[in-house]
Structures are given as C-alpha cells and as structure tokens.
Specification:
The complex is a heterodimer of chains A (634) and B (366). With 634 residues, chain A is of the alpha+beta class. Chain A folds into five domains: 39 residues; 87 residues, conserved putative lor/sdh protein from methanococcus maripaludis s2 fold (Beta Barrel), CATH 2.40.420.20; 153 residues, OB fold (Dihydrolipoamide Acetyltransferase, E2P) (Beta Barrel), CATH 2.40.50; 99 residues; 199 residues, Helix Hairpins. Chain A contains nine helices and 24 strands. In chain A, the strands form four sheets. In chain A, strands 1, 2, 18, 19, 20, 21, 22, 23 and 24 form a nine-stranded mixed β-sheet that branches. In chain A, strands 3-17-14-15-16-13-4 form a seven-stranded antiparallel β-sheet. In chain A, a hairpin with a 3-residue loop joins β21 and β22. In chain A, α2 runs antiparallel to α8, α3 runs antiparallel to α8 and α4 packs antiparallel against α7. Chain B is of the alpha+beta class and 366 residues long. Chain B folds into two domains: 96 residues; 239 residues, no CATH class. Chain B is built from eleven helices and ten strands. In chain B, α1 runs antiparallel to α11, α6 packs antiparallel against α11 and α10 crosses α11. Chain B starts with a helix and ends with a helix. Classes of the chains: A alpha+beta (634), B alpha+beta (366). The interface between A and B is large, with 34 and 40 residues.
Chain lengths: 634, 366
C-alpha cells in the first residue's frame, strides 16, 4: 500500500516537472525571436546613392577697411565741440570738430623770430671776398728766373770746357785706362797660375801647347806608378835571395856527403862483421844519406824558383827605370810648353800695360785742364729748377679749380636760404590768419571709426582728432590656410558667411591667395576676401566657408561607413534573409575604392552599388556574416 | 565499489568546485576589450597573423609627431626586409595610431553652454584602432582637408548642445573655433567605465593641437613645465601613446620590430596587446601581481590602457581563484584514481583466486 502511494507521488512529481519544462519551452519559443534580437548588435544603415562630393575650406578673420584717413589738428588749439561719435556715417563737408586758439599762443612770435634769424644768416652769407692769386704768381715768376739762371750757367760751363776735349773723349779716356789696367791684372793672374802649374781658369788659347804635354806627362807618371807597384809586389813575394839559398845548398851538400860517407863505412863494417847491429847501423846510415840527398834536391828546386823570381824582379826594375825616363822626358816637354805659354802671356801683359799707361797719360792731361767735372752738377740743377717751376704751376691750377667749386656751392646755399625765407614768410602769414576759431570738416564719405578727444581737451599741432573709415574703398578679410587647402580654392569664388545674419546682404569674394611673407619658412598661404554689404563693421569677426570644386558621383556613402583591414577598404552592406521566424538581417562585406571624400560623405566604387543598404554605425565591431538588427526609428 | 554518503558529499563538493572553475573560466574569457582586439579585426579572413603593439611614453622620452613619421618609415623598411607585403595594391600591410592627452580645456557651445573637457590629440588611424560606437557624424582622419574638426563623446555633446545628433555644429574650444565631426560612445564595460571617468572627452587632430599651441594655450590645460616643454618642441607635438598593428608571422616579430624602431628611450613601456588574454600572460601577471599596481616612472597611461590593466588584474585574480578551486577536484580525481586502482587490483586478484579454485577443483586429487 505504502509502496503504491509512493509510486503515485513519484508519478505526480514527474508529471509536474514535465509540465513546467514544456511550459518553459513554450515561453522560450514564443519569445525566442525577441531574446535573439536583443542579443544582436544594433546598427544604423543608409542607402548608398547618387550624390555630390564638395569639400569646403573654412576660416575666420577680422574685417578691415581698405582705406582710412585721420583727421588732424592744425596748430595748438582747444576743442570747443565734437559733432560726431564712433560709428557715425559722415559725408564730405560735414563739420566734425570746432577748435579755438589757445590763449597766449607763442607760436607766431617764435615763427617771426625764426624768420628774422634766417634773414640775418642770408645777409651774412652774401658778404664774401673774391679769391686772390698774387703770391702764387710771384712764386712762379721767381722759379722761372732761377731756371733761367741755371741754364745760363750750364751753357757758360760748356763753352769754357776747351776745344779738343769733349765730354765723350774724357769718358773714353777714363774707360780705356780702366780697361787696360783690368786686362793687365787678369793676365798677371793667368801667368801666376801657369807658373804654379794650376791651369784652372786660364783660357784655352794660352794652353794649347801645354795640354798635350800635360797629357803625356800624366800618362808617364801613371805608368811609373804602376811599374813601381808591380816591382814592390814582386819584391815582397821574394823572401829569400839566391845567394842565401846557395849557401844553404852548399851546407846541405856537405851534410849529404857526410851521410854518404857514413853509409859507405857502415856498409863496409857490415860486410866485414855481418852482425845485426852493424846491419842496423848501415841501414840508418843509408836512410840518413838518402834524406840528406833529398834535402839537397829540394833546396836546389827552391833555388830555381828564387832565381826565376829574381829574374822577374830584374825585369820589373828595368820597366820602372824605363817609365822613369819616359816621365822625365814628358816633364821636360811640359816645362817647355809652360815656358812658351808664359812667354806669350807676358808679351800680352807688356802690351796691355803700355796701353794702360798711355790712356792714363791722356786722362791725366784732361784732369789737369779740369774740363768735364762741373757739367753734371749744373745739368742736375737745371732739372731741379724745371721741376720746381712745374710744381708751382700745377698747384696754382688746382687752387683755382677748388675756389670755383666753392663759389658754386655758396651760390646754391644762398638760393636755398632764400627759398626757406620765402616759405617761412608764407607760413607766418597762414598762422596769423588761423589764429582764430577753426572748423574741421570731413573730406571724404565714410564711417567714424574712432574719436580721440572730447570737448574742452587741448590738442597739439598734428594730433589725430578722429579716424574715418572710407566706405567707398571697400573692406577685406584675411586668414591663413595650408598650401593644400589653398590649392583647392580658386580666386573669384564667393564664400559663404558662417556667422552672419540670415537676411544680411554681406558678400565675400576671394580676390587673392599669396604667400605668408611674415613667416617665410612656412608653406601657408594668406587668402584675401573682398567684403561688400551694408552692415559691415570694421573689427568684426567674420567666419567664411569656401566651396572647393564639387563633383557628382553615382555611389556616395557616409564616411563613417568606410572600414578598412589588411585586404583594403570595404563597407558592410545589410542584407536580409527570410526565415520561418521572420526576416533575419546580416552584414556582408563589399570591397570598395574611395574616389573622393569630404567631411560627411565619400564617393566609392567597387562591390557596392546604388541602393545598397550600407551600415553606417554599430554598437560593436561587426564581422562579415554576423547577424545584426536595425536600430529602431532608422 | 561502495559509494557512501560521505563520498557523495565529497564528490558533490568536487563537482561544485569544477562548476565554479568553469564559471570563472567563462568569466575570465569574457574579460577582453575591443581596444585590445585591433589585430584580430585587421586580420579579417586572411591567413597572415597580426599583432597589436602599444608604446606608452612619458615626456622624458622626447617623442613627437615628426619622429612618428620616421618610425613609420623604419617599420616599412623592416617589412620590406622581411619580404612582407600587402595582399593587394589598394590594401595596407600595417597601420599605426598616435595619441596625446592634452588635459582639461574650456569649451563652449550654443546658448552659453560651457564647461571643461578632457582633450586628446589623435593621429594616424586612431579610430580604426579604437572603434568607439559612432552615434552621429564620422571620425576625423589625418587625410581630412580641414583640421578644425573634433569628435565629441556623448557627454560632451549633451553638455554643449543637449543632443547627440550635432555633427557639423560649431563650438569654441580653448578660444579656437571648432566643428563637430562626430559623436561617439565609449566601450561599455566595468573597466572602461572605471578608467574613463566622469569628465566629458573630446578628440582633436594634431594639426589643430599645434594650432592651439601657436595661438597660446589658456585654462588649466597644462602645468607650467608641460607648457615649457611644448614651447621647446619646434618640430612636432609630443606623442604619449603610439599603437601599431603589424604582421606577426612568428611570435614576437611585431614586438621586436617596434622595439628596434624605437630604440632605447627614457620613460617608455612597450606592450604586446594581442596575447593579453593568454594563459601564460595571466599566469605571469599572477606571479608579479604587485608590479601591476605600482608605477616607477612618470608615464601616464590613457584610459583604454588603464581599463585593460584593470582587466589584466582581475584576470590574474580570477586565474588564482580558478587554480584554488581546481585543487579539490584534482585531489578528488587523484583519490578516485587511487581507489579505482585498488579496486582493480582487488578485482583481478579475486578473479585469479576464483579461477584457481575452479581449476583446483577440476583437478582430481591424487
């Protein structure tokens, strides 16, 4: 029973678990789509389509007027009234300021004083003394007289110099004496050299006979030296003479004879006795006799050699004596040649000496008359006087030229002073005329940009009372852009005003693009715009945007849709697939190439086509094939 | 083998621990940021492996936008040397992004709405590297003709205009006229929320940053020393973060290429983002967990790196928890194996005995 109950309870439990499980499955199945969708990444997408890519270059700058002019005070005055304020539009002839003269103004008196000073200076400058050249002329006349005197003295000296003697003759006599004297000295030197045997420096014409004799002498001397050396060598080789050797041979022969005698006796004794001892004695004696004989033979051979050497020595001595006699002959010939040369030189010496003596005699006779020694000095004096005269003439000419120039300069200065005096007179008249109340009027149409003084303020001469911007001259705005940005814009383009009012008629036109001269190293360019309109204020900040050249493309997508990986740029296109549980969306990769882009969009070409739904943003990175869901409201 | 109540409880606990490990593993796997997945996105369906490398630099590193161009050329040369090239003419092999935190700047929109925003100068393909959700408009790019455009975050757009659909509107940033290029929303995860902060953010181009510098900075955007540092830089603007996605045919190729290109500099940290979620990296973080919470120089990380570091820390802690919870199931498994071994031994010996008895009994006793 209990077991039955237990089984029932167990079945109930299992049934309950199954029911809960199936209910859970049902709920999950119903909401699976929703649950699945919530797990998918959310994306925003946009259709690719036809569009225009247009880049813009932006910048801002301060409006400046092209022309301004300053209203300036004339004279020291007091501002009585100011009739304009900053920002007022004025036209030509409008009264701007009313000025009164300052009391106790000393400017007119100062001007009169100054005029008087100028006129006094001018009068003084007119009083000048003309230059005088009397002293210089007198000096020149004195110089001419001195020159004339010198010339007269010279001519007188020449006339008194003697009929047979001219200056040329005197000089010739002097040079002849010197020449012959020098020749004698030289030849004496040659003679001394020959007598000592040293012929270096002696001309060859004197040595013609000696040279051959000297050559022969030198050859004989060399032969003698050679023969002497040979003889000495041979003598040194002979250590023992033949006589000594003969004596020695004689002694050896006696010894040999004695040894032979002893042998004969010993032989006889042996023949007689026949004992062993006797035999020994005989043999010894025989041996001794034999040796003695050998010694004699050797000594005779040596004697023969010695005799041969002595014969050679004798022949060498003959050669030496022959060479000596040859040398003596050569010496005699040389001495004879030297004597002949010396005689020739002496003859020339004598000739030169006589010529020198004769020349000296002539010179002595000229000196005794005292004819030519003063002419040089007188000539030098004449030359000096000529130079002195020339110098004085040139100096006078320079002085006259300088004085002329000075006179011309003085004339110009005087004219200038006169003109200054005239101007000062006019200025004084004007000051006298303006010393009363003055009204300053506007000279051109414009807008008052600044007013620098108020009523009651004193102003100095030349002070800027106000500034006026000329409206007819136009306005400009400038700003700097990079070189790349400057390349994109073209002159003449009308720019959009980014911070202007909606109905404003302000217009900006690009008029120039030039290098930034304030920063020469920079590649930036300065764009200048011409601003026109009715409500332009100088100093206002104007933001401009210039459209670069735009182009239309078939397939333009937002720039945020372009992605990139190592295979290149691509976009993710959202594709849909129909499933039993509804449409499922997934992203697929489309490789693209970017043709152009601006700040918002990019023109592409590739696997994406017009009307593809391109994913522009997602809440997490996507991979191709990933399932996505579209953000609600897009 | 008899299963006792104690055994059921023990193995039940082991199973629970395993479930905990499974849950922790699932949670750990989910800890990743889109800003760290740039390499995976760039790879697409291609066969080449890519890696994301980030370089964070302080002011002392002296790195500016001019040097960034030089680094790009060096890396291009390294690619050529390694015979790596883009798959097609229109494609690029690699790309980089730069960013610099400028600081707080005053901003004002229409109807006297004004406030302060945290400005960041960006360059390169910053928004390809950080694909923040675009609510309106488009991103800015170095190829744009006009450099006076900025990307606002949702908070800044609401602060200035009261709406997110404000692309093309004008506003004033630090006395400079600026145009809204787009409005974005940052990643929505706990780490990014913590690192991002409550202040509105704005992203401008380096050209606009340089223009602001030449026009004079106002506000409390910079400390005095940073301003003087900027004044000293005559060639480019200081870059605080350089990120690149490079081919990584072998491990650490991208990291080594970037390291070689940058050389040795003070106050510089190079990180390989791609394997941040790997087990080895998490284990390394766990072993040096103290290093993750200290800073030894003046390098300031951007918010996305701070968020990634938060996740690195949490990931290391979770790994530690995984290891802790794994201990008991492993011990139980070992115990089960031991018991199974004993049971097998006993079974075999019983069978042997039984066989012996049967055999013995079959043999007649002599």
């Amino acid at each position: 029973m209990e077991e039955q109950n237990r089984n029932v309870k167990r079945r109930e439990r299992i049934k309950t678990i199954l029911i809960i499980f199936l209910a859970l499955m049902l709920v999950l199945t119903f909401f699976s789509n929703t649950i699945l969708n919530y797990s998918l990444p959310t994306v925003t997408a946009q259709y690719a389509g036809y569009g225009t890519i247009s880049e813009k270059v932006r910048g801002s700058g301060i409006v400046k007027a092209n022309k301004n002019y300053d209203v300036v005070a004339v004279g020291n005055r007091t501002v009585t009234s100011v009739n304009v304020k900053q920002g007022d539009h004025v036209k030509k002839g409008d009264t701007l300021f009313v000025l009164d003269a300052v009391e106790g103004d000393e400017s007119v008196e100062a001007a009169e004083q100054e005029l008087e000073t100028l006129e006094l200076t001018y009068q003084k400058a007119l009083l000048t003394i003309a230059p005088s050249y009397e002293k210089e002329n007198q000096d020149i006349a004195n110089a001419r007289k001195a020159l004339q005197d010198a010339v007269n003295r010279l001519n007188e000296a020449k006339r008194n110099a003697g009929n047979n003697v001219s200056e040329a003759d005197y000089r010739k006599a002097t040079s002849d004496a010197q020449k012959y004297t020098q020749e004698v000295t030289t030849l004496s030197g040659y003679l001394a050299a020959i007598s000592t045997g040293e012929t270096t420096g002696v001309p060859s014409k004197y040595l013609s006979g000696m040279s051959e004799a000297k050559s022969a002498y030198d050859a004989a001397d060399a032969d003698l030296a050679q023969a002497s050396a040979d003889l000495e060598t041979k003598k040194a080789a002979l250590t023992v003479d033949s006589a000594t050797q003969k004596t020695a041979i004689l002694a050896l022969e006696r010894t040999a004879e004695e040894a032979q005698t002893a042998y004969v006796r010993a032989k006889e004794d042996y023949d007689a006795g026949g004992t062993t001892e006797l035999q020994r004695i005989m043999e010894d004696a025989q041996q001794a006799a034999k040796y003695a004989q050998e010694d004699v033979d050797n000594a005779k051979a040596v004697l023969t050699e010695i005799q041969a050497k002595e014969a050679e020595i004798a022949a060498a001595e003959d050669t030496v004596s022959s060479a000596q006699s040859t040398l003596n002959d050569a010496r005699k010939k040389l001495d004879a040649a030297a004597e002949a040369a010396a005689a020739a030189i002496q003859k020339e010496i004598d000739s030169a000496q006589s010529a020198a003596d004769k020349a000296q005699e002539i010179l002595n006779s000229y000196d005794a008359e005292g004819a030519a020694t003063d002419l040089d000095a007188l000539q030098a004096d004449v030359t000096l006087q000529e130079q002195t005269l020339q110098g004085l003439i040139i100096t006078l000419a320079d002085t006259k030229r300088n004085d002329e120039l000075t006179e011309q300069q003085n004339a110009i200065d005087l004219k200038s002073q006169q003109q200054t005096i005239e101007n000062k007179k006019k200025e004084l008249e004007e000051m006298k005329k303006n010393s009363g109340t003055m009204t300053i009027k506007c000279e051109n149409k414009g807008i008052v940009s600044s007013v620098n003084f108020s009523a009651g303020d004193p102003v100095m001469d030349g002070a800027v009372l106000a500034g006026i911007t000329l409206t007819d001259a136009g306005y400009t705005v400038e700003f700097s852009v990079s070189a790349e940005q400057a390349r994109k814009v073209s002159v003449g383009t009308v720019a959009d005003i980014t911070n202007g009012y909606y109905n404003s008629d302000t217009k900006a036109t690009l008029v120039s693009s030039k290098a930034n001269i304030e920063q020469p190293n920079s590649t930036d360019r300065i764009l200048t715009f011409d601003i026109t309109g009715s409500d332009i204020t100088v100093g206002q900040m104007l933001g401009l945007s210039i459209s670069c050249s735009s182009q239309s493309y078939d397939c333009v997508v937002p720039s945020s849709a372009i992605m990139e990986d190592n295979d290149g740029k691509f976009v993710l296109v959202m594709r849909s697939k129909s499933t039993p549980l509804g449409n499922r969306y997934y992203c697929s990769r489309a490789n693209v190439t970017v043709l152009a882009s601006d700040e918002m969009s990019s023109a592409v070409q590739g696997d994406v086509s017009y009307s593809d739904f391109v994913i522009t943003a997602s809440e997490k990175p996507l991979t191709p094939g990933m399932q996505v869901r579209q953000e609600e409201g897009t | 083998m008899r299963i006792t109540k104690k055994g059921i409880i023990g193995y039940g606990c082991a199973l629970l621990s395993l479930i905990c490990v499974g849950v922790l593993t699932a949670v750990n796997s989910s800890l990743c940021l889109e800003s760290q997945m740039a390499a995976e996105r760039w790879e697409g369906d291609g066969t080449m492996n890519y890696a994301q490398v980030s370089v964070f630099m302080g002011k002392e590193a002296g790195f500016d936008t001019t040097l960034a161009d030089g680094i790009a050329e060096t890396i291009d040369a390294a690619m050529v040397t390694a015979s790596l090239e883009a798959p097609s003419e229109d494609a690029r092999l690699w790309y980089y992004a730069c960013s610099t935190p400028i600081g707080t700047l005053p901003v004002s929109g229409n109807k006297n709405n004004s406030g302060n925003v945290l400005a960041t100068a960006v360059g390169g393909d910053f928004f390809t590297m950080h694909p923040m959700t675009l609510l309106d408009g488009s991103y800015i790019s170095p190829n744009d003709l006009m450099k006076d455009r900025a990307v606002l975050d949702e908070l800044a757009a609401w602060q200035l205009f009261g709406s997110s659909k404000v692309s093309g509107r004008e506003f004033i940033l630090n006395d400079q006229r600026c145009i809204v290029a787009g409005v974005i929303r940052q990643e929505s995860d706990y780490a990014t929320d913590a690192a991002y902060g409550e202040t509105a953010r704005i992203y401008i181009s380096y050209d606009f940053y340089a223009q602001m510098q030449s026009g004079g900075m106002t506000g409390d955007a910079m400390s005095a020393e940073m301003t003087s540092d900027m004044m000293g830089m005559t060639q480019g603007s200081y870059v605080g973060c350089y990120e690149a996605v490079l081919p990584d045919p072998v491990r650490n190729f991208a990291l080594n290429t970037v390291t070689d290109a940058f050389g040795t500099r003070d106050c510089m940290h190079i990180i390989r983002n791609t394997d941040r979620n790997s087990l080895s990296r998490r284990w390394k973080n766990l072993c040096h967990i103290h290093d993750m919470v200290i800073s030894v120089d003046s390098t300031a990380y951007p918010y996305w790196e701070n968020a990634a570091r938060i996740m690195d820390y949490d990931s290391a802690v979770l790994l530690g928890a995984q290891i802790f919870f794994m201990i008991y199931p492993v011990l139980c498994a070992l115990h089960l194996l031991w018991k199974g071994y004993k049971w097998l031994n006993r079974f075999i010996s019983d069978k042997r005995k039984a066989h012996k008895n049967r055999y013995r009994s079959a043999i007649p006793q002599i």
